[in-house]
Amino acid sequence: MVKLKPLVNVLNVGRIKYQQGLQLQKFLTNQSNEPFTEFRNYLVLQEFEPVYTIGIRTKGYTQEDEERLRKLGAEFYKTNRGGLITFHGPGQLVAYPLLHLKQFKPSMRWYVANLEQMVIETCKQMGVANATTTEDTGIWVDGERKICAIGVHGSRYVTTHGIGFNCCTDLKWFDHIVPCGIEGKGVTSLSEELKRNVTIEETSEKLIETFGKVFRCDTVEYNKVELEDVLDKARRHS
């Protein structure tokens, strides 16, 4: 018997506030996990208004730090994802794979490795051939400049949060923090590396294609009517 590939529904949300992204994530993952085959998988692609977020390891960020960052015009949120502080904002593609790993492989280590491979392959397709992993989290160019942050959470094999992939991000936002708590290294973007404007839309197309190949799944993108219906339901259930 031929095993069917998992199906992942792609939601291309556009630019929203971080709180809306959290509400949508909560709504989409609030499903019955028994039996796991009934869980509907999603890949949510979005772009956030300026926001600094910290993970479960705060590493000394104080109320004063939070106020300082808010004064820059960004929001500030504490989350349950892995990793330390990072920035999300215009020009950055934030991808949240909301998957039940028992439909794929029940391993968070496998999942994170696949996320890393997905980003590396997308970078290569975009023309950045020297993107790789290091001992530090995320994807790096030449091992020195972070082009994509990774911060995930898993509960009962359901994944939340995901990646922040710099496309045409204003990198000055990162000057006010130590990104992901890693001293002595920088940040970069696809636009910076390729010396041209690389849009979120262009990157999204490549990432969806690569996601399907790396995770060995089928993808189907919600149309505008379906997307608006889901967003409306998420708002009403928040």
Can you describe this structure?
The chain has helices at 18-29, 63-70, 108-126, 190-194, 200-214, 224-237, and strands at residues 7-16, 41-48, 51-54, 75-78, 86-88, 92-98, 131-132, 139-141, 145-155, 158-166, 186-187, 218-221. Helix 2 links the parallel strand 3 (51-54) and strand 4 (75-78). Helix 1 (18-29) packs across helix 6 (224-237) and helix 3 (108-126) packs across helix 5 (200-214). Strands 1, 2, 6, 7, 8, 9, 10, 11 and 12 form a nine-stranded mixed β-sheet that branches. It has a three-stranded mixed β-sheet with strand order 4-3-5, covered by helices on one side. It is 31% helix and 28% strand. The N and C termini lie far apart (42 Å).
Shape estimate? globular
Low-confidence stretches: none
* Separation, N- and C-terminal Cα atoms: 42 Å
> What share of residues is helical?
25-40%
Q: Could you tell me the strand content as a percent range?
A: 25-35%
Average predicted local confidence, pLDDT: 91
Secondary-structure element string: EHEEHEEEHEEEEEHHEH
Rg, Cα atoms, Å: 17 Å
Please count the helical segments.
6
- Outline the biggest β-sheet: 9 strands, mixed
Structural class of the secondary structure composition? alpha/beta
| Number of β-strand runs | 12
